[in-house]
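Appendix C: a fully annotated inverse folding record. The material below is reproduced so that readers can follow the format used throughout the book. The structure is listed first as tokens, followed by the designed sequence.
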């Protein structure tokens, strides 16, 4: 890592804040939203949500980066989440860029905006050689976002029991 990684950052239209234990109600709300979770493995039960929160809090503690809760600039209710986190695929440890938004925020370019910022952080702040993205193979919108931020389709794979399309970008 080249410097202190940001707990918070902004883009043109979004503000991102580091995940904390206080975000449990928000993570729960997102995990119960069928539209959000349709391509992310489905709605999650309370124990799955608690485990997800703990896993992502531990990632911050272990690596100094991870998941952010997203709001529109100026505050208000959360609109989604973004993530940079370690991910093991076929015994290879990579760092993944990811995002999820509530349905009213789809189709507005917000995923591209935050994914672009996360890729830049991965390159500048983490000094990564590559970054990956995973999406449901049928999720054309997410595939398009990954391509717009410079990742290219590498192959299909299975991650956590779900068929996935793996995208990658070489950063250096």
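Designed amino acids, in order:
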């Amino acid at each position: 890592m080249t410097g202190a990684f940001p707990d918070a950052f902004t883009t043109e239209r979004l503000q991102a804040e580091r995940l904390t234990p206080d975000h449990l109600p928000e993570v729960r709300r997102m995990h119960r939203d069928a539209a959000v979770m349709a391509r992310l493995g489905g709605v999650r039960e309370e124990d799955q949500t608690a485990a997800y929160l703990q896993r992502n809090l531990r990632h911050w503690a272990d690596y100094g980066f991870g998941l952010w809760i997203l709001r529109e600039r100026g505050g208000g209710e959360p609109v989604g989440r973004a993530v940079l986190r370690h991910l093991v695929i076929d015994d290879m440890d990579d760092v993944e860029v990811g995002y999820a938004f509530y349905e009213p925020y789809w189709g507005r370019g917000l995923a591209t905006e935050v994914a672009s910022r996360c890729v830049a952080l991965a390159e500048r702040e983490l000094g990564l050689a590559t970054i990956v993205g995973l999406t449901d193979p049928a999720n054309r919108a997410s595939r398009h976002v990954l391509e717009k931020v410079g990742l290219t389709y590498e192959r299909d794979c299975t991650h956590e029991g779900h068929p996935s399309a793996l995208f990658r970008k070489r950063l250096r």
